[in-house]
Amino acid sequence: MSYTADLHTHSPYAHGTSRRLTFENLAKWARIKGIDLLASGDFTQPVWAAETRAKLRDTGDGLFERSGVRFILGAEVNCSAVHNGRRRRVHMLMFAPTIGAVERVTAALSSKGKLEWDGRPTIRMTPRQLLETLLGVDERCFVIPAHLWTPHFGLYGSKSGYDSLEECFEDMTDRVHAVETGLSSEPAMNWRVPSLDHVAIVSFSDAHSPEKLGRELTVVSGQPSYDGLLSALKTQAIEYTVEFFPEEGKYHNSGHRKCGVSMSPQETAARGERCPACGRKLTLGVLHRVEELARRRVETRMDADGLTHGPNGRPSFRMLVSLSQIIAEARGVGLGAKTVRQAYLAMTDALGSELDILTAAPIADIARAAGEKVADGVSRVRRGEVAIEPGFDGQYGSARVWPDELQGATEDGPWRRLM
Ligand SMILES: [Zn+2]
Ligand SMILES: [Zn+2]
Questions:
Q1: At what angle do helices 338-351 and 363-370 cross, to 10 degrees?
Q2: Do residues 411 and 268 touch, judged by C-beta distance below 8 A?
Q3: Mean pLDDT throughout 50-68?
Q4: Among 64, 110, 205, 323, which is most exposed with the fewest C-beta within 10 angstroms?
Q5: Which ligand is nearest to the CA of 206?
């Protein structure tokens, strides 16, 4: 038994998120995407907390339910405090087993930040102080450092992060059981860092709109329950994670968005960490930071099912491109085109969830439902045959399933074939 979990989600009350993030739409899109367990999101925001109590049914196992989709009470906060001589800004996911625990956590944090102002509030606490506060409320509360490597708000970020979990959590390090990779890194990059050997490497969407749910997710072993999830994280009982191609994430390379400059770690090693256009320091990306903290190389291999394995027995992962992207490219139209949305909904109606279509549905069935070109796109993605232009300094990278059909594409253009 296993279930799919996306535990980094938001409400409409977090800055920059869609007003369509209602519980009705969260449940509807979880079913379309193939997600069994979602985070309720933003539980410190009072309006959304009231909505959560009204719209979700307590299932008595530490989880909640709406329209057949399970929910765990979860939120994200921005921990902002001076620690070890530096100003730290670190995003943390936090989880609680009961509405009562949520109310006590919210009360404990209310003097530390403006909770009604932003669903992802800034809290004047270190991540360690947050963890201590949560465990003081309920021993079953837990945290997951969010998008671990992003420059500005990742616990390992180049701008204000730490160099190890121990530096951040000190005597409480063994109470941290998992870290979130973020869109710009995949598990194999994290396996290179020894201080992450004892935590589960998990992936979630950080969706700001319902359609982005599950773009990264974690397939957890067992049946959904609060205690079962916590123990699966402690023992790394994870079947696999679903990942973006890490190059697609918006902080993969180092660079300057305004100057249009993007550099790999090899290029910054050769040319320095200053922008060749404006002379200021580049925003050092995830790949740069991984190279800094990595202490070993890791060989990986992809099996016939598209799962990537390491030599270390840790949970495997698969990299996917969204079904909408495949449809849009197959039809030669933009991702936002109405026909893409129509074809997407027709396919998920006929064949099952997006995750099923991308990973398991027979290619012949996909061809019958959506045509040969889309079916070819899905099998290319399953084999990892995708070309990516890497993201940098806040700009998303872009994936191409059929890079040769791009106008002006050349062998040594910006498009890099991964496999
Ligand atoms: Zn965040
Ligand atoms: Zn510049």
A1: 130
A2: no
A3: 98
A4: 110
A5: 1
